[in-house]
Design brief:
Length: about 300
């Protein structure tokens, strides 16, 4: 009996009761399990906690798939512009109904995947943008159609239009070429006002018709004499008048034209706007702002 007592006293003490599930876990794993179980109880879930982990793991592939869908929609829209004939076909009215509906369908598909929830105050909005598409209600298309009504398409060409957006102001520039040898630029300046997370108001301030520039190498022989007389006449004008002509023709536009539009899509490469009639304008980025601009949420005007 004494020997048995000696053996028993040499053995390590063992607790009388031990949890069936925690008997072989370290204190760290016990704490982790307890914390996870507590989290599950807080949200009222009866399913095992590993289901929550599985849902989180499934979220990453879903986000990746959505991003791939958005990039594919962007590429599809740009290809539709090219297939429709690009900017020239748009301003000359040479688009077919099938091409128009195809482009509009792809615009709608991309708008559905807009990644920017508050585009009017996003830093992505600022920069230099190129017009790829605009509808019948757009001031740009109105100016283009007016040009081609006055001049035959083989004598006048609107080569491109772009807009610079910075610090609440916009400057639209249209570059034209007449008679293959005279380049002219029309600039429209406007003030932008944020009226909501998607809505903005544009008020035109001034229009400038810059002095045409002549490309002498491309002037037809039958026009060189007339062109020389015109240049000689301008040079004989008084200096103040010559300075005015050199500075271009300025037309005040304050209070004459304004419009409301929504930004339905915005990322680092594409901007889509719709006017009050729902007509879309699609622009692609040419230049980003010189400095990164922090996103600031400003108060909206009602």
């Amino acid at each position: 009996m004494a020997a048995a007592a000696t053996v028993a006293s040499s053995l390590p003490s063992i607790p009388a009761t031990r949890s069936r599930n925690s008997s072989f876990f370290s204190p760290t794993s016990v704490a982790t399990t307890s914390s996870s179980s507590s989290a599950c109880r807080k949200v009222g879930l009866r399913m095992p906690c590993r289901a929550m982990v599985q849902q989180a793991a499934q979220g990453a592939p879903a986000a990746y798939a959505k991003e791939m869908e958005r990039l594919s929609a962007k590429e599809s829209l740009l290809l539709a512009f090219k297939d429709a004939g690009g900017f020239e076909a748009l301003v000359t009215g040479k688009l077919t109904e099938v091409q128009q509906i195809d482009v509009n369908e792809r615009i709608t598909g991309l708008e559905r995947l807009n990644p920017t929830t508050r585009p009017t105050t996003s830093p992505y909005l600022e920069g230099r943008w190129n017009f790829e598409w605009f509808g019948a209600g757009s001031p740009g298309l109105f100016a283009a159609r007016l040009l081609f009504q006055r001049f035959p398409s083989n004598l006048a060409n609107l080569s491109n239009m772009d807009v610079v957006i910075k610090e609440g102001k916009a400057r639209v520039t249209a570059n034209m070429k007449l008679l293959y040898s005279i380049e002219s630029t029309v600039t429209l300046s406007s003030q932008l006002t944020v009226e909501g997370p998607l809505r903005m108001k544009e008020e035109y301030v001034e229009g400038i018709l810059e002095t045409p520039k002549v490309i002498e190498e491309t002037v037809p022989e039958q026009l060189k004499g007339v062109l020389g007389q015109a240049i000689s006449t301008v040079q004989q004008l008084p200096v103040p008048i010559r300075d005015v002509i050199a500075g271009g023709l300025r037309v005040p536009l304050s209070g004459t034209f304004q419009r409301l539009f929504l930004i339905s899509y915005l990322d680092e490469e594409i901007l889509i706007m719709r006017d009050a009639a729902g007509v879309p304008e699609v622009l692609t980025r040419l230049e980003a702002p010189a400095l990164a601009i922090p996103e600031v949420v400003s108060e909206y005007e009602s």
